[in-house]
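Working notes for the structural subgroup meeting. M.R. asked for a predicted model of this chain before we commit to crystallization trials. I am recording the input and output together here so anyone reviewing the notebook later can reproduce the run.

Input as submitted:
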Amino acid sequence: MSNNSQGSVKGEAATMVSPSGSASSQGPPLSPSTTSKSPELPDELVQAGWSKCWSRRENRPYYFNRFTNQSLWEVPVLGQHDVISDPLGLNAAPAEGGDSNVGNGQRKRRSSEEQGAGPNSFKRTKVEPSTPISPSTPGVKPWSTAPEDKQAQTATPTTPSPAPSPAPYRPAVIYWDLDVQTNAVIRERPPASHLPPHPEIELQRAQLVTKLRQHYHELCHQREGIDPPRESFNRWLLERKVIDKGHDPLLPSDCEPVISPSMFREVMNDIPIRLSRIKYKEEARKLLFKYAEAAKRMIDSRNVSPESRKVVKWNAEDTMNWLRRDHSASKEDYMDRLEHLRQQCGPHVAAVAKDSVEGICSKIYQLSAEYSRRLRQTHLSLLQDPPTEVCASPPQPRLVYCYPVRLAMSTPPLPRVELHFENDVACLRFKGEMVKVNRGHFSKLELLYRYSCIDDPRFEKFLSRVWCLLKRYQVMFGSGANEGTGLQGALPVSVFEALNRQFGVTFECFASPLNCYFKQFCSAFPDIDSFFGSRGPFLSFSPISGSFEANPPFCEELMDSMVTHFEDLLDQSSEPLSFIVFVPEWRDPVTPALTRMEGSRFLRHQLNIPAYEHEYRSGGQHICKREDMYYRAVHGTTVLFLQNEAGFTKWAPTPERLAELTTAYRPSLSRTSSLSSPGPAHTAPGERDSTPKPSDRTQSSTMSSDNNNNGSSSSSSSSPQDKPSTV
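Returned structure, recorded in token form:
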């Protein structure tokens, strides 16, 4: 199906790769044609589309712009607010000598506005001036203060600027660089068959996912008497989407096997109780007593074999008698006794709970599939055109620089989303549901949308799509304190700068429009993220050449699939290809993904960063306070350089490059006093915790770690180019 979403790519065009030329830039937008001059207005205002009219209702003149449909009571000032170059009104300058909400900023109320003419009309309580950006100049930042930028923005060939432009809005700190151009080359792709996002569907999806979380919580309580493992539902979504072949972007609906290994493993590890981390002797004594009591109660209430009942009851009663007799035991004695009790009772308890936990996993998946089917039916009923089969790729697709995912289906008219600002926070509301984002990231989303979206040049659908984007990630994160933020954690800006300078990195394999540093990235939701620059999920992205940074969510199944994809790409390409991977240094037990990368024949170098000596950016950076932006990693981080021969020749991890990368890991002195992990409570180094379990590492660590606090403490090891693979 052909539609307006398949036009030329604006700002980020898919161009032929040739050694002699680069992508051709798009020219400036055409100026509106002039009409007969009105003696009532200056010549430059008439050329801009303004004319003087008479209001019979108010019995006074007003001024109307035929290009923008804007009406003003006062004489317009050139450069006041142009809805074409500044669709959101973020750059409107206040009237001289008065409030910005009166004078030239006061619109004439017309019947069309009273009826809500625009689907995304919004209200704004406070407007700060900003320098407008032309859609045809994607390299210019709205907060740039370079003299040449100011001259280019204020001076035009046809209309002289009557006054200097207002002071631009300046974010306190910038966590991205959208000027970096990509070096990632792919084969041209057909449009994707995803259904375009819609606020009505996104609201219904949010309600169904919340309902599914509640079902999961109730099943864990009713069947096993435990709280769901922390963030296990979020990791279930990640693990399921790795193998899901269904249509919904968030809810799994077509997975094999039906029972999730991730959810099953995490729930089983919390039976009969969750072994929390402890610091003091009394906590260890209480934990041991609770475990013995819960194991005995579980065996008494289930249908088990006489042998299992005898073993568990005897060990539990023996432990309780020991606790009553011995009050002088140390913390280590209690922990040794707990480990012994787990070894004796654990297999019998797991055998009893196995069928029940499998029932929980199966029930949650079946509900998710039903919700997905219901959502798709509602979504199709809202579309103007029924979906059709997407045309296949041409026999020999061209090599092009990577470009955002394009949807095959056109977007129907979207309902109205209201926008207003509360201090430095942008608030978007749809049907009473409000989502928030700080103003700096809101400006970032506007820039990404300007670069990447090709079907909405007048930003008429921008607010609706931003609301869908924020709602999607809000639902994926969950509602708990700091819940889900680890799924969107990111490296510090200094590390990205070093990766770009020294290793030519221009692309993020796991990011989102909210936390990306470059404007080219892969993300989880191509249906909505593509309007803001996403190249789609990384496991479906097949670059031919380029330098990439990979910082995956800490889900073992996802990381294992990532390694398989890395090795396939490196083995198939003869062009320069490099992946710099950041994963947690989990050694007890070691993760399959880390073991495979350390034994890969493409491993060129490995850098280990100790725990508590580096930091990473919060996944909630778009809504958190500035002082909460960075926090320490509670686990070590391993940095692995996977490169083919051409990539190693071009971006080899030389000692000089590694030295600059290590230096970039050192946290800023202004942040070292208040860095902490948002995860569960952890013990100080040297203190003994409860026996580690595979789920502990997923619950206590949330995203890959970044900066090194002490360069001398980093350790690195090289790997020969021909090191055999252990896969």
